[in-house]
Design goal:
By secondary structure, this protein is α+β, with helices and mostly antiparallel strands. It has a single domain, classed as Pnp Oxidase, Chain A (Roll). Helices cover about 25% and strands about 35% of the residues. Strands 1, 2, 3, 4, 5, 6, 7 and 8 form an 8-stranded antiparallel beta sheet that branches. The chain is globular. The protein starts with a strand and ends in a 13-residue tail after the last helix.
């Protein structure tokens, strides 16, 4: 049932691009620290090369993924098919955080929609690609994107978003450094 791939081929790329949600997991080095698992949506994932992917990291109430990546780089991204054949794909790798002030940010950002809530782009050098069955995963129907994130951002405004990031995204729940600004 399980299989590994050397790179993201056409089949994997097509399958990944068809998914409306993916999950990102990271962990701090300290075994007493909190693991993090975050669902991601929107039009936020890109395949940059057969072994490099990136996604937009938008403002949220925590900054665990960014903090963990800055500390140790370890990340796994999971795509789970909820329609069609039951498949799960995992991209293990080493990730890095590209914040808006970084030299490469404009070129990367041009590959994504210009969300006002983008706080970073996560780039992952994929070290392992695996597939497993999703026989226990239910079939679910995609109904559309939620509107609350962008309504919340519009209500906050530019200055409000900046203050929110300063208040909520400076450090992880375990005290690791988060966003620089």
């Amino acid at each position: 049932m399980g299989k590994t791939y050397e790179q993201i081929d056409e089949y994997l790329a097509k399958t990944i691009q068809e998914q409306h949600v993916f999950f990102v997991a990271t962990a701090p080095l300290d075994s007493r620290g909190n693991l993090n698992l975050s669902p991601k949506g929107l039009d936020s994932f890109r395949i940059l090369s057969p072994r490099t992917v990136a996604y937009l990291d938008v403002i949220g109430s925590g900054v665990e993924t960014i903090a963990h990546l800055k500390e140790n780089g370890r990340i796994v991204i999971m795509f789970c098919k909820f329609q069609g054949s039951p498949n799960i794909f995992r991209l293990h790798g080493m990730g890095r955080v590209v914040e808006p002030g970084a030299r490469e940010f404009p070129d990367l950002a041009a590959k994504f929609p210009p969300y006002e809530t983008t706080r970073a782009i996560i780039v992952v050098d994929v070290t392992r690609i695996s597939h497993s069955c999703g026989y226990g995963v239910p079939v679910m129907k995609y109904e559309g994107e939620r509107t609350q994130h962008f309504a919340w951002a519009a209500h906050k405004g530019v200055e409000g978003l900046k203050l929110y990031k300063q208040e909520k995204n400076r450090q992880s729940i375990d005290g690791l450094p988060g966003l620089a600004e």
